[in-house]
Amino acid sequence: MSAPLPAVPANVCYHCLQPLPEDGGYTVVLAEQEVPVCCYGCQAVAETIAQQNLLHFYRYRDTSNPLQVPLLPEELQQLTAYDDEQLQQQFTRHDEHGLRSINLSVEGMTCSACAWLIEQHLGRVAGVRKVQVNATTERVYIQWQPEQAKLSELLHAMAELGYRALPFQAANQEQEFKRRRRYFVKRLGVAGIGMMQVMMIAVGLYFGVVSDLTPDLQQFMWWVSFLMTTPVLFYSAQPFFASAIRSLQAGRPNMDVPVTFALISTYGASAYATIMNRGEVYFESVTMFTFFLLVGRYFELLARQKAVAAASNSIKLLPAVAQRVLPSGELESVSVSQLQLGDIVQVLPGTTVPADGALLSDTAHVNESILTGESRLIQKRQQETVLAGSVNQQQPIRLRVTATQQETVLASIIELQDLALSRKPKLALMAETMADKFVSRILMLSGLTFLIWTFIEPNEAFWVALSVLVATCPCALSLAAPTAVTGAIHKLNKSGILLRNADMLQVLPDIKTIFVDKTGTLTTGEFKLQQLHCYAHEHIDEQAVRAVVQAIESYSEHPLAAALTQLTKKSVNVTEVQTVIGYGLQAVWTPPGTADAEPIRVGSLRFVREWHPQFQPQLTAAQVFVATPETVLAELHVGDRIRPDTPATIAALQAQGIEVIMLTGDRQDLAEQVAQELAIQQVYGDLLPADKLAKVTAAQEQGPVAMIGDGLNDGPVLAQADVSITFGHAADLARTAADVILLRNEFSALTHCRDITLTAQQILKQNIRWALIYNVGIIPVAMAGFVTPYIAAIGMSLSSLIVLLNSLRLYR
């Protein structure tokens, strides 16, 4: 029992110490005392203080001057510090729409009911656009409009529900898990000691010694069991009680509701028998039930820790200190959080790059395994981007900072991991829904069992109903999906495969048709100019053509463009550059020897033929053409090569019964050459984005399809496909539309991704199948009275552990 709170003068609000209204105001229960408060606001704040275990605020505050008494504990006042703009840069992200997003770590979240309650409550806060909760990793992703809501308001909203939420910091994650482990280990210790003592007494009562016991000695042993069981119930079983209360407040009873009812009713009936000295006691069932449940929760905590370790470790590998280069050329050590855009930093060999930056040194060799899972060295040239988290392998290098903290590529990858963990596939949602419905049906089934047994054998009715309640608790069903999904995402991330949509885990294994783009997907996308044919023109020579193509292509994100941006040292000015998706680029320039500006096009054959319908190329393999409204200036052949791992991957997919179809905007004859080399039977060339979209949409009438592409013009078709896949080097629009990002930029990662999803789907189905078989199969056995309460507790805990151990296979 907690210590009483200090008294305050009569007729004043206990919270703010101001006079109460004439009607007496409101009341609130603090430390088991009912105290008056003047208004609903004081009542809400007082309840929050009690829920946050901050009652020391009332015990130690100075009440000598009521006008200066603080209205919030220091712990809650400190939340306003998170509204500081500079501080928020360390853990929030901005998007192009002006929205901010954050990942919060939440204490005390135990199940889907907690997640539902948080989503509903935060979703009603003004300015909040999106709330996604992952009960497995105990994180909340929030996207909000900073002009309408402050971060401290969101944290206060969480506090009102009784949850302590703070910005996710990887450095604190390990400490939080250690604290949670200690929390469970202490309760496990008390439950284990209590269970052993009570079981020794139970053995003496049940196995042959009963005849030698006097009634006084029997009652004494009952009292000893009662005293040993009490701390187990009120201390060790506390996590189940708290979870059950929250779920009932949310209106969605979870699996801890029947657990709580079973524990309290068994303890209450046994205590009554002890005090009245008649009936039977089952204190050993209470202690065993609590102990085995705690064992299951402890293993679940360890599984969660393993699930989130990869993302946490990625952030922790970033250095805390960077070497910044001063204008004088000297170096100073500064915190990474203090780096600003444009700062120049020096990275020594063997150390980790602290922020994204443009390389100022001539070359660098870095290891990007933290980002892609691939340990081979990557060569970077001057002005290329070196990513935070990469490890410099050779000589010291210098970078100009282009992104820091939450704006780095590494931070965006980790944010996508968290989003994938918070999005449940349909099969997982189905299991969660079944578990929620199962709880209410268990309660009704247990009540029905009690009524039936009152007619069969009244003395056993309560204990049989209790066994039904315990044995059929859907713990395994609740764990079936989250553990499998979390394990699969962990396995994929470790392999350099990033998920944006967890539904892919369910859909990809069933797909029998995969559409692939050619350029940059089946091929490397590393182009080089092979041939340049210029047509005779009075004022425009080859150097002028090279200069204008180079100037226009510098505006393009197409894979071909990279090979056309270093054609000459000569420069020209172009204006009004427009990208015509699927065709090329159009601009305005002033040709040499003339004073008038005119339009010019650089792009596909179809693009040029809009001006010159009768034009026939001279180069068989030309892909890029240059023309003005008066004449065609040049045609270019830009060479590419098939990825080394593409033929084997295509063959492996076809061997599994998957049809691979090529869709490309390149000319049909060029596409057919690549398709023939890869043994792809169906190939469609000369396609615009709308044509690709039509092909995929038509195929979807026969079943789900996947699309793999990396170009700007692949965005619409990627969004349409049931599963969309792209590469880490892809255009921003393609990455935004894709469900899966292959960070290693290897085509073979596709089969690896499919193999993992197949395993994950099998394990997910196995988990759900086992949970349903156990829960449904144990019902008639328990209702028939063949299962005692403690055997029911063991069976329920073992079923949960089987699900956890099966899911852990994904981590191997």
UniProtKB/TrEMBL annotation:
Spans traversing the lipid bilayer: 188-208, 220-245, 257-275, 281-299, 438-456, 462-485, 768-787
Main location: membrane
GO cellular component terms listed in the entry, alphabetical order: plasma membrane
Gene Ontology molecular function: any one: ATP hydrolysis activity
SUPFAM superfamilies assigned to the protein according to its UniProt record, in alphabetical order: Calcium ATPase, transduction domain A, Calcium ATPase, transmembrane domain M, HAD-like, HMA, heavy metal-associated domain
CDD domains named in the record: HMA, P-type_ATPase_HM
Topological relation to the membrane, as annotated: Multi-pass membrane protein
Lineage: superkingdom: Bacteria
NCBIfam families: ATPase-IB1_Cu, ATPase-IB_hvy, ATPase_P-type
UniProt-recorded name of the protein: Cu2+-exporting ATPase
